[in-house]
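Objective 1b: paired records.
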Amino acid sequence: MLLLAAIAAWAHLAKPMPPLDGAEARRRLADEFPGKALDCMWISDDGRGAVARSGGLALILYAVGDGYVARDLPWDQVAASPVQDGCLALKLHDMAAPRAKLAFATWPLN
């Protein structure tokens, strides 16, 4: 029984993810937001997230565990967000994913 528990725990260990590049971020955003055109996109400094503008929306992709979470916010809210301690902190107003922290030494729009 202990052996089965150990195998189950081992199988769920987080796998290291390679840093996002532009092509991978675009692919993931297209999967999560079909039909949304990307006006422009920024990849976080550590490659663990991205912010894209699509009209009046910001499409946000960020790493959690061994996967990515995608959310959207009004563009104006994201554009006005400050960078603190090297991170762009976004309040998502979602119980499952309450905030995203993306590593940007400077947010391009501030």
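Objective 1b, second protein:
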Amino acid sequence: MKLAAIDIGSNAIRFQVTNVITYNDTHTFKKLEYVRFPLRLGQDVFKYKEIGPKKEEQFFKVMHAFKLLIDLYEVDDYYACATSAMRESNNGHSIAERVNQLLGLKIHIIDGNKEAHLINKVVMKKLDANNYLHIDVGGGSTELNVISKGEKQHSKSFKMGSVRTLESDAHLIALQAVTDWTQKYTKDFENVVAVGTGGNINKVFDLTGRDKNDRTLSVTDILDIQDYVSSFSLEQREHQLQLNPDRADVILPAISLYLHAMKSAKCKKIIVPDVGLKDGLMHMLYERNFTKLDIKF
């Protein structure tokens, strides 16, 4: 069976097709296609409260391309979801409806709690019974989850993200809210370890050059990368560090958000498991199609 996930974020749109291979009542995921398109819907929304005509037409073309891929791969089930940019846009729902009517592609505009739930569900599969603060920094929102003994204890979505910080000063208020919430809900837990998801923290890990079998970074590791990236101009980040243009300008704001949340919970290290919303969507699709069988990663 083939499954497809579309993650419509504030900075980029991600599309993945996965083949679920069945053998002896065990299912294995095999990635067949992955596309990331840097549309940056949040650039319009966080400034003007709506998606402008140019980005709307670009968005429609991207969705058309993904619908063609879904048809060409003969996908059995798919799920397309949009997060903070489209849910805050005055015309987000009308654009999603236009895509559905003209292309037959349904887009679910989900709230921050569902977004956090989908990501956290796949993250928790990789954790033990210790205490964790899961930090997911996106383009327009940041989701925090306090996890202990293999269970989610507390969860909160904040209007604070890497793209939003470029377009608005509103994140300064959100920073204090993150501090207050995190301190309140982690004060009773000892030795909290951060878990970071999102494209920017994965890029931070890549820049360290660390062994991919040990995906743990210390606060010092992150601070070193922050200083290193800061030493380059925006143009140098693209040419010398080989960062995509839509990564080069948001990586430093994102690093600051991760460090802020970690400091609030007194985390000394962060695990970077290299999973995200698209992985959560794949697991959701798996569960609704294969609820009685085991899965192998």
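The radius of gyration is 19 Å. The chain is about 45% helix and 25% strand.
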